[in-house]
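Ticket #4471: structure export looks truncated?
Reporter: QA, pipeline team
Priority: medium

Steps to reproduce: submit the single chain below to the structure queue and open the exported record.
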Amino acid sequence: MKGSKSIFYMIFSVIAFSLMNTGVKYLNDFSAYQIVFFRSIGTLCFTIPLIIKHKIPILGTRKKWLILRGVAGVISLTCFFQSLNYLSLGTAVSLRYTSPIFAAIFALLFLKEKVKPIQWFLFLIAFLGVLIIKGFGVDVNSIGLILAILSAIFLGIIFVLIRKIGDSENSLVIINYFMVMAFVFGGLMCINHWRNPNAVEWLLLLSLGVFGYVGQLYLTKAFQSYETNVIAPLKYLEVVFMILIGTFWYKETYNLWTLLGVLLIMVSLIYNVYLKRKKSKA
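Actual output as written to the record:
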C-alpha cells in the first residue's frame, strides 16, 4: 500500500512538471535566470504561508543536508533552463531524465541500496529508449548536451539527498530551502538579463511556480516514503507526457522510432516497478 501511494505521488509530480515545462517552452525568450526567479516566487507563495500556518520550524533540523539539496536543486534547474537555449524541449527533457541512472549509482554508493543486474539492464533499456525518441547525436548542440547532462547528474543527487533526509524534515521545509536559494540566485543573476513581461507572460511566469510547487511537493513525498530505485525510474514518464503535449498542443510529429523509444521506456520502468513490488511482497 505504501509503495502504491508513493508511485501515485511520483506520477502526479510528473504531470505537474510536464505542465511547467510546457510553460517554459512558451517563455523561451526570457533568460534562464529570470525563469528560475519566477519559478521560485510562485512556489514561495505556497510554502512560506503553509509553514507559518502549521508552525513548522522554518530552518529545519538537518541544515547541512537541506542546504546541499537546495544548492543541487538550483544548479540542476538552471542548467536545464539554459539547455533549452541550445536544444529542443523534447531533447532537453529526454537527456535530463537520464537522472534515474545517476540516482541509482549514487544510492548504491552512499545509501547502500542494492541494484540487481536485471535493474541495471532495465535502466540501460530505458536510456536507449530516451536516445531513440529524440535521435541522439542528430542536431544535438554540444553545449546544450553538457548542460542537460549536468542537470541530470544533479537531479540524481537530489533524489538521494531527499532519501537521506527521509521523514526527519517536513516536505515544505525541504522545498522552501530550495526555493529561497533559487529566489536569491535567480534574482541576482537576472538583474542584467531582465525583460519586462506582458500580462499573459506575467501569468505564465507565475504559474511556473504553482506547477513547480505541486510537482516538487509530490516528488519529495514520493522519495521520502519509498526506495529511490523504485521511484526514480518513473521520472521517465515525463518524456512520454512531453511527446503527447508536443503532438496535441504544438502539433509536433513523431515517427515509428519515437514510438519504439516510448515502448522501451514504458516496458522497462513498469517491469522494474513490478520486480521491486514482487520482492517487497515476498
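Status: closed, not a bug. The export was complete when the record was re-opened. Leaving a note from the reviewer for reference: Residues 185 and 249 are 32 Å apart (CA to CA).
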